[in-house]
From TrEMBL:
This is MR/P fimbria adhesin subunit MrpH. Keywords: Signal. It comes from the Bacteria. The keyword Aminoacyl-tRNA synthetase does not apply. It comes from Klebsiella aerogenes (Enterobacter aerogenes).
Length: 78
């Protein structure tokens, strides 16, 4: 049992070495909001998408579908 746990930990560590995080910096602003605060729909404009460095791989390359999530902050502290 101990050998299996050690093998599993080593496998996860090696797999983590080959995974690359993806991140982009964007500046966007809301042009319109409708609905209630608990169920609002926003229309927004992405003003700028900062370029990535050349060493960062595209995480969507080769995939038939790729999803992007945009999160936001209300203040600098979150």
């Amino acid at each position: 049992m101990f050998i299996f746990k050690r093998f599993q930990a080593i496998f996860i560590l090696i797999a983590g070495l080959f995974s690359a995080p993806a991140m982009a910096s964007i500046f966007s602003y809301i042009t319109e909001s409708t609905g209630t605060p608990s169920n609002a729909t926003y229309t927004y404009v992405i003003e700028r998408w900062d370029p990535e460095t050349s060493g960062i791989l595209n995480p969507c390359y080769g995939w038939p579908v790729c999803y992007v999530t945009e999160n936001h902050k209300h203040t600098v502290n979150g």
